[in-house]
Design a protein that fits this description.
- The structure is a homodimer.
- The first copy, chain A, is α/β, with parallel strands linked by helices and about 270 residues long.
- The first copy, chain A, folds into 2 domains: about 70 residues, Orthogonal Bundle (Arc Repressor Mutant, subunit A); about 190 residues, Rossmann fold.
- Chain A is built from 7 helices and 12 strands.
- In chain A, the strands form 4 sheets. A 6-stranded mixed beta sheet of chain A has the order 6-5-9-10-11-12, sandwiched between helices. A two-stranded antiparallel sheet of chain A has the order 1-2. In chain A, strands 3-4 form a two-stranded antiparallel ribbon.
- In chain A, α1 crosses α3.
- The interface between A and B is large, with 61 and 61 residues.
Chain lengths: ~270, ~270
């Protein structure tokens, strides 16, 4: 085989690492693939770490020791995260997207790959240190963002359903009070999670917090602890939600009028003022 | 600013390109970012094309002319695609995953980021040339794979629902005959797609084809043409489906017995024999 150049090795390595976020690659697996010495690979990885830092392309981390290797984390810098969410807020604000009843149409953005991947990376960046074992969402609209978050964290996605399905096997069902005050069912396959795991809840929309509270209760049934809750959008009202400690990327306020207007702002924790 | 080395430029460029599949990046945008001449960037891109080919990491394509630039396509080679699906078949075959009623539990694999991304890339590879404008799926289980396909194709994902929702705006509803013979409703927001677009249908499971046929009819209501249909899994029986021209990644056969056994095989178009 022809000798592989440093620029070729480095490009291929960054691509492979970033295709499997948060997965440990051993140095020897790369040595074997590229036919290089460990010292050479270490230099390549140091150079890649600088590339990632310089161009704000995530973080390359090395783990030393016998079980060591290199990990890619798609961490987004605060400036980039805030800037990205600001552009989304601009797209969502105004009159055009307000629907009858004071709802906002944004299903398109919730399944636009580029927007969804960036939102997932921003949420993942916030919760790496919480070391969740999986991401939990409730069907349907939040699934793409929850999947992108799980992808960035390198953990599975778990989807709770409105009812149990024959192809999910035996399930745990709970009842919860939805935003409109009705009693709804939430169902999760027994096979989906294990006792004592750690869950990160991700969903598209937080208003009163009924569904989110349901998910917390569902996790309690499985003896799973909830390490955090993230939402794409939270309404300004009601101020008091049924859950606490949640983080939303944007806040939504609908101003009455004819036509009504949506005011969508980046969350304060993302874009700190001053 | 310090002079950027070729290995740094190339690594950063491949990462940026692969973060936005199928998006055209102009040469001048990279020239500006790296402070390099066009001739230098062209050499870098040629070198990246060889890297992608050598390590089976997708395709780098260049578009010449005034509106030209460079595009990354996460194309998977036939050998890699077949090998990957074979490993999934091994995980799914056997007795452990068979549920009462002859169903197979594989929801975990349908939301495991690495498996989902690879399946999405395999489907996208097959349908690039059909130039779909969006990917259509029906809630819920197929959403992650459909999203990964949309991501690889660089197009939006559109999700049909079982009923219309207030936050989706005005919708088109159709009725269709489900696999169990019952009449079901399928709903899609009017804002979700435009007339004369091209849809690629992606879903998790094909048995009789009732839901798939429903999606085709839904697209007809929007004057959208369906350029293809891809499924993660298709049952061997019934042989005759209500749709045609579909491609599944795997086929499923449940062998009766105590306990029953699942035989999951890679589809013939993926792993050609001989």
């Amino acid at each position: 085989m022809e000798k592989i150049r440093r620029n070729e090795r480095m490009s291929a390595m960054l691509k492979m690492l970033s295709d499997s976020p948060n997965r440990l690659f051993t140095l020897s697996s790369f040595c074997e693939l590229f036919g290089s010495a460990k010292s050479t690979m270490s230099e390549d990885i140091d150079a890649l770490r600088r590339v990632a830092d310089t161009f704000d392309l995530g973080k390359i981390e090395t783990v030393t020791g016998a079980a060591g290797g290199v990990i890619y984390r798609p961490v987004i810098s605060p400036a980039k995260a805030c800037g990205y969410i600001e552009t989304l807020c601009d797209r969502l604000s105004g009159q055009e997207r307000v629907l009858p009843g004071g709802f906002l149409y944004y299903s398109d953005i919730l399944s636009e790959p580029e927007a969804v991947n960036r939102m997932g990376e921003i949420i993942a960046t916030e919760y790496y240190t919480g070391t969740p074992d999986f991401v939990l969402t409730m069907e349907t609209k939040g699934i793409p963002v929850a999947f992108a978050t799980a992808n960035a964290l390198g953990v599975p996605l778990v989807i709770a359903r409105h009812s149990s399905k024959v192809y999910e096997g035996s399930a745990v069902n709970i009842n919860y009070v939805s935003g409109s005050g009705s009693i709804e069912t939430m169902s999760l396959s027994r096979r989906a999670v294990k006792e004592n795991q750690r869950a990160l809840i991700v969903d598209d929309f937080l208003k009163g917090g009924g569904t989110a509270k349901g998910m917390v209760e569902l996790m309690r049934e499985f003896n799973v602890s909830v390490i955090g809750m993230a939402f794409v959008m939270a309404t300004v009202n009601p101020v008091k939600k049924r859950v606490s400690g949640e983080k939303a990327l944007m806040t939504l306020e609908i101003r009455d009028g004819d036509p009504a207007e949506a005011i969508v702002r980046p969350a304060e924790w993302l874009c700190r003022i001053g």
